[in-house]
Amino acid sequence: MKQIDRRSFSKRRKESGTVAVLVALCLIVIVGFLALALDIGYVMVTRNESQDAADAAALAGARRLGENYYTKVADKTTDVESVSETTAGLNKVATQNVARDNVDIKIGWWDQYSGTFTETSTSPNAVQATVTRRTGLTSGPIRTFVAGVMGIANFRMEATATAAIQGECTGEVDFPIGIGRSWFSNKSAQGYSKGICTEIAINDTMSSCAGWTNLENKKYKWQDVDAIIKGGPVPDVDIGDIIEFGGGVVQTMLDDLVVRFNAEKVNGIWTVHIPVFEDNNVCQNPNKAYVVIGYATMDIYDVITTGNNKGLYGKIVCEEADMTRGTCFYAGTYGAVPGLVK
């Protein structure tokens, strides 16, 4: 009769126990990875849903803001918050519609050069919407699936979007004067601040950051400018176009300008539309080619043809809006169709 090796049997029992322990550990790791895969995927889905809701709310609010400028509503913030909240509520996050207390709406000013948002009700141009799922709100934090086994029962979700109305990107130029960006962005020099425009004087002092232009990318001739002043064809001017400028003013131009002014003015005002050019924030007498970055509306109220103060006098019109796309440089007139900026 063959004798059983008890030592070998005991060894196999120990190895079997080790394998069981390893299998159990592997199962824990597998379950952990499963939790990670399922819940991270769910986090990404709900984050996208939250971002979509925030985007929609910000855009809807900014659109209403633009419409308020377009229709000249006295309080530009009228209905902006309620429209944003209602739009957010049309969206779902984790199968639940976004409740009013789950969305926070802020109205303010978006500085397109510094890329910053400041909450204010004075001449606002932007709406910021934040959609949140957390404890204490109508819709609480997002519940997890497998991760709950590991002690992670839920997680907080938050998404923010900012939409703004900026300068109109399409415009019809009808007057041969261009004004530099520095007139609007150099607040300390020109007294311009968030939609408050100041008077400009285009005369011998050349302190207006503006000048005469033929509105074309060809050699400047004052005769071309004079032809436009007298009512001749006006070249099309688009964002990104290059236009030429010339320094000084010819007396004939002023004489023709006062005739045109007297014919066009209504209640003492002649409203014209002019291009804004990139002068790299340096106010100067433009006498070369510049790139067009936006449009402005100007009310001409006087033309003086003699004396030390001879020249053209007007004021840039602010807080106006056209129902066009508004993602370009703001020079007093908004494009009421907003865009996401952050």
Summarize the structure in words.
This protein is of the alpha+beta class. Helices cover 31% and strands 29% of the residues. It folds into two domains: 20-164, no CATH class; 177-340, no CATH class. The protein has helices spanning 6-70, 80-89, 182-185, 187-190, 222-229, 251-264, and strands at residues 92-93, 96-97, 103-111, 116-119, 126-133, 142-143, 154-155, 157-164, 177-180, 199-203, 210-213, 242-246, 270-277, 289-304, 311-316, 320-325, 333-337, 339-340. The strands form five sheets. Strands 4-3-5-8-18 form a five-stranded antiparallel beta sheet. The protein has a five-stranded mixed barrel with strand order 9-11-12-14-13. Strand 3 and strand 4 (116-119) form a beta hairpin. Helix 1 (6-70) runs antiparallel to helix 2 (80-89) and helix 5 runs parallel beside helix 6. The longest helix is centred in the first third of the chain and has 65 residues, at 6-70. The protein is elongated, with a radius of gyration of 32 Å.
What is the topology?
Elements (H helix, E strand, L loop, with lengths): L5 H65 L9 H10 L2 E2 L2 E2 L5 E9 L4 E4 L6 E8 L8 E2 L10 E2 L1 E8 L12 E4 L1 H4 L1 H4 L8 E5 L6 E4 L8 H8 L12 E5 L4 H14 L5 E8 L11 E16 L6 E6 L3 E6 L7 E5 L1 E2 L2
Parallel strand pairs: 9-13, 16-17
Antiparallel strand pairs: 1-2, 3-4, 3-5, 5-8, 6-7, 8-18, 9-11, 10-15, 11-12, 12-14, 13-14, 14-15
Helix pairs in contact: 1-2, 5-6
